[in-house]
Amino acid sequence: MHTVWKGAISFGLVHVPVKMFSATEDKDISMRYIHQVCGSPLAYIRKCPSCDVEVKWEEITKGYEYEKGKFVLFEKEELDQLSEQANKNIAILDFVNLTDIDPIYFQKTYYLSPDQSGGNAYQLLMTAMRETGKIGIAKISIRSKSSLAAIRVLEDCLAIETIFYPDEIRPVSQVPNIPENIAVNDKELTMAKMLIDQLSTPFDPEKYTDDYRARLLELINHKVAGEEYKIAPAKPEANVVDLMAALQASIQATQTQQPPIMTDPGPSKPAKKRTTRKTTAEKKENKDEPVVTPKTTKRKTAKKKETGA
Q1: Tens of pLDDT, residues 42-53
Q2: Which of 217, 25, 8 is nearest to 92 (CA)?
Q3: Which of 104, 94, 168 shows the shortest CA–CA distance to 138?
Q4: Of all helices (H) and strands (E), which one includes residue 70?
Q5: Overall pTM > 0.70
Q6: Cβ(244)–Cβ(190) under 8 Å?
Q7: Host H or E run for residue 52
């Protein structure tokens, strides 16, 4: 990893020398502007519109436009002096709970590793933050940009996330067309909660992929190989006006995607033995069981009447 910053974390009088590394990377596929006539990539030229000449880097400075067309200019050394001290230190101002910070404040994440002989202090800070469940709120300046930052424990590493200042967050009141005082239908609300419940699952980041980037890479590979590749047009989305119908259709769609729920019927009852009448031939096979036919029964009854039995 490339070191993007070197300095120290300070809390109280404790200083922890650290190096900073970017924790994320941009996976966007970059495109160049090409002259369609000849196929050459276009170059960006720093040209002064007044002098009509290309400007070299050593002739460029920074300026602030305080009125239309009027600027105050700054030398590089002046700006460096403003941020020189801040660039070397991450001063923890407070320790707070992570849940107290709304996600809208977070910008970019960096990893922090101990620098020089700061391993003991680094481990001490990380262990103390892990056991207290707190994160540190600090100030940091990266590439002349001052930011608030949240320092927290991420696995076995300290991570720092730059966060916006409060005045950099636009108020919700500026958002147009937010509905006000609109009554929610109870049945629709029940269906919406049911749909949320069916779609609820533990967060697994591995299941989410950049489908656009994958399709673009596939298209690039086909073009590099000289293959003709056509993309099927997307199906038009159905414009469902009935909100209740949309909710019901959504719930039915989630139910068809889920495996059927198997219920336990309990212990099975023993099957009843099927009783069948024995035939005369079967009874003859059983020596212990006398065979009685209708004729012999009539003879025995007649003998009993003769003997008066």
Answers
A1: 888 888 888 889
A2: 8
A3: 94
A4: strand 70-74
A5: no
A6: no
A7: none
CA 212 to CA 93: how far, in whole Å? 41
E strand or H helix that includes residue 69 = none
What is the C-alpha separation between 4 and 142, in angstroms, rounded? 8
**Distance separating alpha carbons of residues 248 and 191, to the nearest angstrom:** 7
Q: For the purposes of burial, counting CB atoms within 10 Å of the CB of 303, is it exposed (0-12), middle (13-18) or buried (19 or more)?
A: exposed
**Token pair 């910070």 in the structure block, residue:** 101
Angstrom distance (rounded) from CA 124 to CA 129: 9
d(CA 7, CA 92): 13
pLDDT by residue (tens digit) across 94-125?
A: 999 999 999 999 999 999 999 887 889 999 99
User: In terms of C-beta density within 10 A (0-12 exposed, 13-18 middle, 19 or more buried), how is residue 195 classed?
Assistant: middle
List, in order, residues 6 or more apart from 119 with CB less than 8 Å away. none
Per the DSSP assignment, residues forming a β-bridge with 5 are 20
Residue 10 burial by Cβ neighbours in a 10 Å radius (0-12, 13-18, 19+) = middle
Span 221-279, pLDDT tens digits: 888 888 877 777 766 665 555 777 887 888 888 877 654 333 343 444 444 444 445 44
Residues 14-53 as b or e (16 or more Cβ within 10 Å = b): eebbbbbeebeeeeeeeeeeeeeeeeeeeeeeeeeeeeee
Q: Is the pLDDT of residue 211 over 50?
A: yes
